[in-house]
Specification:
By secondary structure, the protein is mainly α. The chain is built from 17 helices and no strands. The longest helix is centred in the C-terminal third of the chain and has 30 residues.
């Protein structure tokens, strides 16, 4: 398709049209001032401080007065004995969580949408949304209380059924990833299904009517009508999920950590916090370098996922 070149006259006409649009809808544009200001101040403004990752930060000299050290901070992280452990834990938790928590809201939404009795659908939706609004601190407290081997639900049931002292689940570090992921499933599946319910609500009813005329069962209608219609939405959500795959939930991971599971639960986000703020000698430069490494990996994964999605089904975010 041939495009019209932007001549000076056309540019002037476009600018004039933009001015007229802004003048006619200035109230709507005024609403953008606060969010744009927020992004500039709290998202883009602090990016200037990323140079600290390439410096040996000295508090008395400040960020821009500290001496440059190039990629030394990145080398220190890559050569650290913690590097392989932290990266492995982060990828394990991230991919485990993605493989479990991404498809379940889709399956849940398809299942509820297929229910013939709508009042039950609304009740189940409401009940499953509630856990999402529980704060992380309360959520971790509930996990500790339920899985306590002495007086929790798990311990009480185990002793009642076996008349023996149950093993301490939290004492085995290998259990950390399972507790982390499946508690996240309970908390987020209902809320995560909202966007798929919205997509299913926009499915053309005539497609279902045509399938019924052709003798399709309810399962076949889900398989050949509902799923293809929500695939573009699922593709966008998958791209966003892959783009944040290195961002394991910091608060929940830190609160669930203990000395027994640290080798399994130390991820990049908690390691950045400990190196930069919780250590005896705070190393802000190393902490910034680790955080930048994490962000770069996330960006590359986002680009790859978007490219793959566009190649497979034509849907992408850019």
């Amino acid at each position: 398709m041939q495009t019209t070149p932007l001549t000076p006259e056309l540019k002037a006409r476009l600018r004039e049209r933009l001015k007229l649009n802004i003048k006619a809808r200035w109230q709507i544009y005024l609403l953008l001032v606060l969010p744009i200001t927020y992004l500039l101040v709290f998202a883009y403004g602090p990016m200037g401080g990323l140079v600290i990752a390439f410096k040996k930060y000295n508090f008395s000299l400040g960020i821009f007065g500290s001496p440059w050290v190039g990629f030394d901070n990145f080398r220190r992280f890559f050569q650290s004995y913690r590097f392989s452990q932290v990266l492995t834990n982060t990828l394990t938790l991230s991919f485990y969580s993605l493989l479990v928590t991404f498809p379940l809201p889709i399956i849940f939404a398809l299942f509820l949408n297929a229910l013939p009795f709508k009042p039950y659908q609304k009740l189940i939706q409401t009940v499953t949304y509630i856990p999402y609004f529980i704060s992380t601190v309360v959520m971790v407290g509930l996990i500790f209380q339920v899985l306590n081997n002495r007086n929790g639900l798990y311990g009480s049931l185990f002793m009642f059924l076996t008349n023996a002292m149950p093993p301490d689940i939290f004492a085995d570090g290998a259990n950390f990833k399972h507790i982390y992921v499946w508690s996240g499933v309970w908390q987020s599946t209902g809320y995560g299904s909202i966007i798929y319910f919205a997509a299913l609500a926009n499915v053309d009813p005539t497609l279902h009517e045509a399938a019924l005329v052709d003798g399709a069962t309810r399962f076949q209608r889900v398989l050949y009508v509902d799923i293809p219609c929500i695939m573009p939405t699922a593709s966008i959500m998958l791209i966003l999920a892959v783009g944040g795959i290195m961002n394991v939930a910091f608060e929940k991971t830190l609160l669930m950590q203990n000395s027994l599971n640290l080798n399994y639960s130390e991820v990049i986000s908690t390691y950045v916090y400990k190196v930069g703020l919780a250590a005896g000698v705070n190393d802000f430069s190393l902490s910034a370098a680790i955080g930048m490494f994490n962000s770069v990996i996330n960006f590359l994964l986002l680009v790859v996922a978007n490219w793959g999605s566009k190649r497979l089904n034509g849907s992408g975010i850019f």
